[in-house]
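During the reporting period the student researcher (J.K.) took over the structure-prediction task from the postdoctoral fellow and processed the backlog of single-chain submissions. One of the processed entries is reproduced below for the supervisory committee.
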Amino acid sequence: MTLTAVLRSEWIKIRSIRSIYGSLIAVLVTTLIITVLVLGTVGQEQAEQAGADAVLNAFFALNFGQIAAVAFGATAVSSEFLNGALRVSLAAVPRRSLFYAAKMTAIGGAVLVVGLVTTFTTFLVGQLFLGEHAIGLGHPGALRAALGGGIYLALMALLAAGLATLLRSAIAVLGLLIPLLLIVPFVLVDVATAVLRYLPDRAGQAVLHQNPVDGPGPWSGLAVTALWAAAALLAGWWAVRNRDA
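J.K. obtained the following C-alpha cells:
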C-alpha cells in the first residue's frame, strides 16, 4: 500500500471511532468554552493588573485544551491494541514502519489543523469580552502565539501517541502525563524551577508568552517540546518494529 492509501485508512479510523473523534473535537470545544467563561467574567480585571501579559491571558485555556489533545493522541493509538485490531492493521500494511509513520502523521496532522483553528478562534472570540483592553493579531507576540499554540497542541498529541505505542495503554499514558501537566509543576515549583522550564509543557508554552523570561525562548521552547515528542515517537517505533502484535 502507498503512504497516501495508509493515511486515508488512518483518517477513516479517527472519524469512525467516537471516543477518538470526540477527543479531537474536544480540543476546540474545551478551549473555547473555558476562554469564554474566564475572559467573560474576569478578563478585564486580569487585563488591568500591573504587568499582565495580554497574550498569555488570551491563550490561558490551552492549559485545558492540551489535555484533550493528549487524550486524543493516546486513544488514537491504544485503540489498535483492543480486540486484536493491530494484527488486522499489520495484515493490511505489513510494512510496520510505513504503518507507524502514517498513523503518527494522521494524528499529528489532525491535531495541527484543529489546534490552529482552536488558537485563532479562541483568541478572536476572547477579545470580544475585553472591551478597551482587547488586542489584535498585530499585537507583539499574538500571531506567533496563535501559530505556535497550534503546533504545541500537535506536539503534545504526538508525545502521548508515542508513549501509548510503547505502553499499549491510553490509561497508563494519561496517568503519566496528566499529573505531569497539572500537579508536578506546582509541587516542584520552589525546588526545581530550572528543571520545570524544560518539561515538555512548560517549555512549549513559552511560545504563548508575549516576552518569555527565565527559560527557553518561544521557538526554542517549542523545539524542546519537539525533542520530547521525537523521543517518545522513536520509542514507539522501536516497540512497533520489535514487539509481537
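The committee noted the following: The two ends are 19 Å apart (CA to CA).
J.K. will present the remaining backlog at the next meeting.
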